[in-house]
Amino acid sequence: MCPTIVPYTYEAKKEKRIYFTSLLKDMKVLVATEKPFAKKAVEGIRGIVEEAGYELALLEKYADRAELLSAVADVDALIVRSDKVTAEVIAAAKNLKIVVRAGAGYDNVDLEAASARGIVVMNAPGQNSELALAMMIFMARNGFTPGTGSEIQGKTLGIHAYGNVGKLVGRKGKAMGMNVIAYDPFVTDDALFEADGVKRVASVGELYEAADFLSLHIPATAQTRGSIGYELLMSMPKGATLVNTARKEVIDEAGVVRAMTEREDLKYLSLIHISEPTRPY
């Protein structure tokens, strides 16, 4: 039997949308966030989901994993932030077809368990690029204390890992007049850096030694966990700032605290909670 070929016109798109909607008319989407999205973001998600004819469920600020396991039991789609989507969670979600992680990495999702079930896993890279630059400006301006601070224009911005987010940060840093350098052991083609006006350096050490501002974008792996600590921070220029919008796990917290204790000119700013007490900036 030959398939029916429908020209890809506006009417055909409408027909296809109606067809797929009818197949998935009972789809349930769960937003599960220990740290909730902003109210406006949730309203936006709800509008999109309900306009498509699907049901939206919310699980926010949950304290017990049992709550998550119960909530996923009948859902077709799951939206999370840094919430752990483990093999146990996937096994409990009998109808699950897709997991969307609102962030750049996949390390909070058990990809092997998802693949075994044919579950699609998607992410949303690039969300933190503007925030990383904003954090640098905040630090350069001494927390926006009137009459103090300096410009980031003319300063050297180091990018540790030149993936999607790292590239966006680098391009925006260039647009603000920064001198941008980068290191990524997995990106070895100089032309990729040169296309963005970015200088590729040969080592992590060279990157940190030259960077007035260091934007961290490495994933949490067996090789990177605890790799950013005392020695790298101590090698940075006077008044340097390390900005972490990547992962808490890549930071050697004791080493960072030690470096900042010995050198009060150093600054560390992060989206991720650090368990050791440190100076505010």
Structure in words:
Helices cover 35% and strands 17% of the residues. The protein has 281 residues and is of the alpha/beta class.
Task: Reconstruct the topology from this structure.
Blueprint: H1 10-23, E1 28-33, H2 39-51, E2 55-60, H3 65-71, E3 77-80, H4 87-92, E4 98-101, H5 111-116, E5 120-123, H6 129-140, E6 156-160, H7 164-175, E7 179-183, H8 190-194, E8 199-200, H9 204-210, E9 213-216, H10 230-234, E10 241-244, H11 253-262, E11 267-270
Parallel strand pairs: 1-2, 1-3, 3-4, 4-5, 6-7, 6-9, 7-8, 9-10, 10-11
Key descriptive features of the protein:
single chain, 281 residues, alpha/beta, six-stranded parallel β-sheet, five-stranded parallel β-sheet, 11 helices, 35% helix
Question: How would you summarize this macromolecular structure in one to three sentences?
Answer:
With 281 residues, this protein is an alpha/beta fold.
Gyration radius, to the nearest Å? 22 Å
Low-confidence stretches: 1-23, 276-281
Rough shape? Answer: elongated
Write out the strand line-up for the largest beta sheet, numbering strands in chain order.
8-7-6-9-10-11
Helix tally equals 11
Strand content of the residues, in percent?
15-25%
Pattern of helices and strands: HEHEHEHEHEHEHEHEHEHEHE
Question: Taking all residues together, what is the mean pLDDT?
Answer: 87
What structural class is derived from the secondary structure elements? alpha/beta
Helix percent reads 25-40%
What is the subunit arrangement here? single chain
Distance between the termini: 68 Å
How many β-strand runs? 11
Biggest beta sheet summary: 6 strands, parallel
